Amino acid sequence: MTTAVNNQTNQDVYAALGLNAPNSNATKKKNTLDQADFLRLMTEQLQHQDPLKPMDNTQMVAQMAQMSTVQGITDLNKTVKGFQESMASDQVLRGAALVGHQVLVPSEKLVLEKEGSVEGTVAAPSAGIITVDVTDATGAKVTSLSVEAKAAGETAFKWDGKDANGKRMEPGKYSIVANHVDTAGKSTKLSTYVQAPVESVTVGSDGLYLNLKGLGTAPIDYVLRVS
User: Fold this and answer.
1) d(CA 16, CA 65)
2) Do residues 125 and 174 make contact, with C-beta atoms less than 8 angstroms apart?
């Protein structure tokens, strides 16, 4: 956007000074006008003006004002760029503080380590029974977890890493599907949220991303809780 504004301004300035704009296809060291260029062009115009028809004060003031406008745009662009760089640095610092912590994010996957359990939550719409089915990479059902939601709101679940027969499963990524059955017997599929450790952070063009162990990346805005 900035380049387009400057290019258009350059064309206007050359036209206002009665000069032909440089060929856009010619090799140039720069493609924008600065204050030195304005002063040089104005000096040349004064030197080559018709003595019988000298430039009037109004025209000179208008050209000086145009120069100030272009310089103001350039300064504004520098200020905005500096602000963006500062914001990016602040995001990195905020994200770096999360490295090594557990975060709760939306996910239909969970990662089982060699030891320990995996925790997650669902948002129950009302009191009822919540069932969380765990399946492996082939789609085979590993086990089914059942928790009671006493009221609407967040309800936690925990998988100990074992199948329905009590056998410890291999470390890796598993899929989960949660369903809620209310007191009237109505079944509703629920979104699932799991805890995952933050390994590192990445600053993208559209914000900060957390690199979660085994789950890939997630925007920082997706984080519901940090522990």
Assistant:
1) 12
2) no
Q: Identify the helix (H) or strand (E) that includes residue 156.
A: strand 153-159
CA gap 148, 73 in Å, rounded: 61
- Return per-residue pLDDT of the chain as tens, 227 residues: 443 444 445 555 555 544 455 555 544 455 555 566 666 766 766 666 656 555 555 665 566 666 666 566 666 666 656 555 555 566 667 777 889 999 999 999 999 999 999 999 999 999 999 999 999 999 999 999 999 999 999 999 999 999 999 999 999 999 999 999 999 999 999 999 999 999 998 887 778 899 999 999 999 889 999 98
Q: Do 168 and 147 fall into the same domain? A: yes
The boundaries of the domain holding residue 134 are 102-196
